[in-house]
């Protein structure tokens, strides 16, 4: 029987991201994926600024092209692509366009089809030590107090074998057999309708993208559909009126939506459920749900589907690494669901409060304050035992410019100059614990805590290790000159001391022990 610290079931976007993040943190893992490669019909295409921060951290910054600054996803209601364009629609009604003057991240997001992104993730994962087993399916699993035993089978040879893992990550999709086996229920708006789609090539239609609109709602007599471009000559057309598409109807349906008899090469057809379902638990024992297994959400202009799953496994990876390495008590893993499920539910509510999907509900959800995309990506609040001092009156999300380094939010982005040249806070956080402080007493305390606990802490003394306007630093981090901020390995502020304390070593040690559930607490 093969033994591995982490077994991942599902090798699509979220499973591959989990493997990549774990391997980057030095955690051996195996990915079991029943298919031989990526799905012929790509799904996700839009990847957010936060997702690109993760991918840049693990060495993929130059391999995934990003969109131009200021680019936003635009959608129009049209009779057909070549026909009358009726109006442009907004994702968040009446929301102000974020100012580009105050940068909150160096990344702009990426528009890359999932079937082109997944090979990049696979290659990097294998380079870092991941084991990917494609064409292999999970037959069954059992867990006990010490681990999980999974029975898997090769779809090519029929050979069955067992794998023993300390932990299992279920990234096996919305119909997750693992979640069902565990008996974890889901809540939300539920099933709304089945969407039938066709993927095709049509180079002649590419010039319509020159007006800056990438998505189109087709409204004409007898036809309701949604058309989007993958930016590489491929288009996905989805019938939204609840009717199926048979082969005889495909060509005339495509022509009706395009508005002209363009040459079309049909690649494949497919279907998916428009639904909203959030798992009531994100873990049970040694099994963790991630991606669609945890939260089934339709594709949105805000990227609330795939990106939420990638967020999940970025959050989970550092916690698994700490526990597998023996530094943290397994109680740290309880904070995964505590932090991620409220965010999954928030995204469910945000999705179905917006016009794109509110129109399909049988009854409207309770009125929701609508948060901007940048607030949802870079300004969400995390609450759990791994966050100290998140005040009760804080909102679940806010524009990053409205935060001031409060515990539970992403560490502020701030450009600096170091001994080797220009850098930013993003270059200093995201792998280990990072301490930011101006006073040397905190830097000395970090060295002592690191020596005693064995937990690496990158201690950054402002004015020495990093040169930045001190007033700006204090404003963005919400601390005084004598204060300090401790950032977790996932880039979330875990704790801060607004001002000085009598015993910096004791204060920092206590904070680290609580955030990381270090043994002995």
From TrEMBL:
<protein>
    <submittedName>
        <fullName>2,4-dichlorophenol 6-monooxygenase</fullName>
    </submittedName>
</protein>
<dbReference type="InterPro" id="IPR036188">
    <property type="entry name" value="FAD/NAD-bd_sf"/>
</dbReference>
<keyword id="KW-0274">FAD</keyword>
<dbReference type="GO" id="GO:0016709">
    <property type="term" value="F:oxidoreductase activity, acting on paired donors, with incorporation or reduction of molecular oxygen, NAD(P)H as one donor, and incorporation of one atom of oxygen"/>
</dbReference>
<dbReference type="InterPro" id="IPR050641">
    <property type="entry name" value="RIFMO-like"/>
</dbReference>
<dbReference type="GO" id="GO:0071949">
    <property type="term" value="F:FAD binding"/>
</dbReference>
<feature type="domain" description="FAD-binding">
    <location>
        <begin position="4"/>
        <end position="346"/>
    </location>
</feature>
<keyword id="KW-0285">Flavoprotein</keyword>
<dbReference type="Pfam" id="PF01494">
    <property type="entry name" value="FAD_binding_3"/>
</dbReference>
<dbReference type="Pfam" id="PF21274">
    <property type="entry name" value="Rng_hyd_C"/>
</dbReference>
<dbReference type="InterPro" id="IPR002938">
    <property type="entry name" value="FAD-bd"/>
</dbReference>
<keyword id="KW-0560">Oxidoreductase</keyword>
<keyword id="KW-0503">Monooxygenase</keyword>
